[in-house]
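Lab manual, section 2.4: Encoding a predicted structure.

Procedure: take the sequence of the chain (107 residues), apply the prediction step described in section 2.3, and record the output as structure tokens. A sample record is shown.
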Amino acid sequence: MTHVVTESCIKCKYTDCVDVCPVDCFHEGPNMLVIDPDECIDCAVCIPECPVNAIVPEEDLSEEQKKFTPLNAELAKIWPVITDAKPGPEDADQWKDVKDKLKLLER
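Recorded output:
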């Protein structure tokens, strides 16, 4: 199994999770992070690091969130690996509780 970055990350893109990842499975896009399912070792150390609870074990995804599994796999192939945390977007806190953000995903 793998872990999946879900919609909560869009426009928040906190990077606390990348500092604790032992296998560098996170990839960075313009306004979201994703996890490469081929690199993730299912260790779960990233989950408590995410301030918006965007990282979910694949087996715990809700029906609505399941679309993020193939999305993570697809985008991990084209976005670069991120291994060091950096400051989040200035307006991240304004977006953390917003729902229905998939339409705002920048590829």
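Check your result against the sample. DSSP finds three helices and four strands in the chain.
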